[in-house]
Amino acid sequence: MRKVSDFVWEIPAEGTEAAVPVRIYANEKIAQSMTKDRTLKQAANAAKLPKIVKNLLVMPDGHEGYGFPVGGVAAFDADDGIISPGVVGYDINCGVRLIKTNLTVKDVKPKMKQLMDSLFKNVPSGVGSRINLGFTKTDLERVSEEGVEYIIKKGFGFESDLERIEEHGVLEGADISKVSEFARKRGVHELGTLGAGNHFLEVQRVGQIMSSEHAKGYGLEKDMVTIMIHSGSRGFGHQVCSDYLRVFSEYQSKNNIIPPDPELCYAFVNTRPAQEYLAAMKAAVNFAFTNRQIMTNSIRKSFQEVFSKSPDELGMELLYDVAHNIAKPEEHEVDGKRKKLLVHRKGATRAFGPHHPQIPGIYKQYGQPVIIPGSMGSASYVLAGRAEAMKETFGSSCHGSGRVMSRHQAIREIPASKTLGDLDSKGIELRVRNKKLISEEAEWAYKNVDDVVQSIEGAKISNIVARLAPLGVAKG
Questions:
Q1: 3.40.50.150, 3.60.15.10, 3.90.1860.10, 3.40.50.170: CATH of 2-475
Q2: What is the pLDDT of residues 28-39, one digit of tens each?
Q3: Catalytic residue status for 399
Q4: What is this structure's pTM?
């Protein structure tokens, strides 16, 4: 690993089997920490995949994952390249959504216990969590193919929400017939649920404004209360990934393909397995966007219950919703030429710069909002995409703080009492269904999110706009 600048490092491709270099965006402390596990080995392995272009990227929140590092970005030729379920990840379209309000900390603090109780009731969380909102198999099928617009027409949100969701809440070309019956059974009662692990619902306040120009453009003000949702496609998306890992493994065996790592199985995009996976993956993407939309409706309901005002009166509009685990066709410049690429982001956020045609008109001059959740008890951030990211990282940024401890290690080394004491000292209300998560998701099991986002800004990928501090956290 050689130093390119204070915030950029590189593992050259020369003298290895890699097709492209690996680029790491991090300060020195974070970059060196990645050498302590398999993060960089996984990245170097993935750089050997066929038809990969330019660089394989590792963001500062990067850590070891399934075959491919979480916090990784890889782009392949869209016409004759490959697609890999392992490079997308199990939790397809795990992502983050930020909802604004016109409430301040002063308004909310006296009612935090009541508010967190209502949110915990209305937004089910935990392994196998389910909700009965009357959805049918037909609803699931239409959600999977039509995305958020379908559920808004059924009364779960506002038309104005659509513009503030990546891809307007739908990837075209989804096909529910390519999704197994088992995945569908898992999904129908999970729409509107948070899940477990690192997924959370958090009530926050805008603690610091770093860029007043961007904050004004995004409608953020100091002490404003916001709500962040971090969740994905639940068992539906997990099953899609599991099903197609088996399909791709059989495809590779028949075609004598040996990937650089068994967990990096792939198929060429112009083959039947690849096209069927893409159609199923898009269905899971649409499911996840819609899942967050339904939870938004439940959150608005909770605020209405507690504050006796309508969501409209409370100013509960979306700031933005971004996907973290996804593969999408995009156009980017490579070696001075515009190329159509299939960009895989796994634990990475799209961060398009100002005036890009795919970001909402209201944000055109500021760049796409980039929402970076922290760990339980730590800060989260709003950033803005920069033009440099379009040239440097396929318009990508980090997605969170990134683990430094496995879940087992965190349980062994971080007593729940330490986390509870820390949250209590900060005045943060906690609601959790599985007490193991108190240790597993402790702040110290993750990198320092301040270091992570400062690395992103230092590498000129995104501008820091605002720092958000938690008031209440709900987890599975």
A1: 3.90.1860.10
A2: 999 999 999 999
A3: yes
A4: 0.96
